Amino acid sequence: MENKKYYQLLITTCPDAAVADKLAHTLLENHLAACVNILPNIQSVYEWKGEIVSDAEVLLFIKTRREHYAAIEQVLLKQHPYEVPELIALPIETGLPSYLAWLDRIVSQ
């Protein structure tokens, strides 16, 4: 069987840039992610406690390996201000080999 690493793109939202920046730095400082893209000024519309809510949020794309999911989840639950933070994991099936090698170097330190 091939010794294949499994990469993931994790998605989460934050209430503002300060929370997003703090989460991104924590993940990078702990080598849990190789890169976190912070996309400001998104509008989220969702149902919460029986009401339709529309909020300005900041979106994070977190590039990592699947083995770090549990640790990232714990960081998110500890640092995130939302009662139920979003955390969705999407598999990265393939990618530029040099990019994935760089990702491996960063999260393996």
Number of strands: 4
Shape: elongated
Roughly what is the average pLDDT, rounded to an integer? 94
What spatial order of strands do you see in the largest sheet?
2-3-1-4
The CATH class designation is Alpha Beta
Radius of gyration: 15 Å
Judging by the overall fold, what is the CATH architecture?
A: 2-Layer Sandwich
Number of helices: 3
Would you identify the regions where 5 or more consecutive residues have pLDDT less than 50? none
H/E topology pattern: EHEEHEH
Strand proportion, as a percent range, falls in: 35-45%
**Could you name the CATH topology?**
Alpha-Beta Plaits
Count of folded domains? 1
What structural class do helix, strand and pairing data support? alpha+beta
Distance from N terminus to C terminus (CA atoms, Å) equals 26 Å
Sheet bearing the most strands, described? 4 strands, antiparallel
Estimate percent helicity. Answer: 25-40%
How would you explain this protein's 3D organization?
This is CutA1 divalent ion tolerance protein. It holds the Pfam family CutA1. The protein has helices at residues 17-29, 69-79, 97-107, and strands at 7-14, 35-48, 51-65, 88-92. It is α+β, with helices and mostly antiparallel strands and 109 residues long. It has a single domain (7-107), classed as Alpha-Beta Plaits (2-Layer Sandwich). Strands 2-3-1-4 form a four-stranded antiparallel beta sheet. Helix 1 packs antiparallel against helix 2 (69-79). The longest helix has 13 residues, at 17-29. The chain is elongated and about 45 Å long. The chain starts with 6 loop residues before the first strand and ends with a helix.
